[in-house]
Amino acid sequence: MPVGGCFCGKVRYSVEGEPLGKALCHCHDCRKITGSTYSTNIIVAGPNFSLTSGTPKTIAKTADTGREIVSHFCGDCGSTLWRDGASFGDGKVVKVGTLDDLDALDKALPMIELFAEHRVSWVKGIEGAQQKAAM
Known about the structure:
The protein is mostly beta strands. It contains two helices and eleven strands, in the order βββαββββββαββ. Helices cover 8% and strands 36% of the residues. The strands form two sheets. It has an eight-stranded mixed β-sheet. The longest helix is centred in the first third of the chain and has 7 residues. The chain starts with a strand and ends with a strand.
């Protein structure tokens, strides 16, 4: 069972089963919360996600889609671990870089790129991944 957590280790989680999806997101929110050009995500069914230790802080805001999205992050080190909201049903959008498996990013080859029109010019699209203008 894959496990992950924040940079300081105070908030930990586990996931079971195969992801429902694998996506890169180029939206402005994902740039802000990662401090980078995009976020690499797996979408996990709610029942397959478990918070195993710690209590993350949350912040809700209106996303680029116009819908509310909630970010769950460590209040001590600031690592964003997952996001959820009505757009995802009971699903959790897990930030792959927070998984402990050093090969997790290699295993998360995206099936889709969201907000692809916001991709920075020096990042190429993923061959074979669906390119979407929004979510």
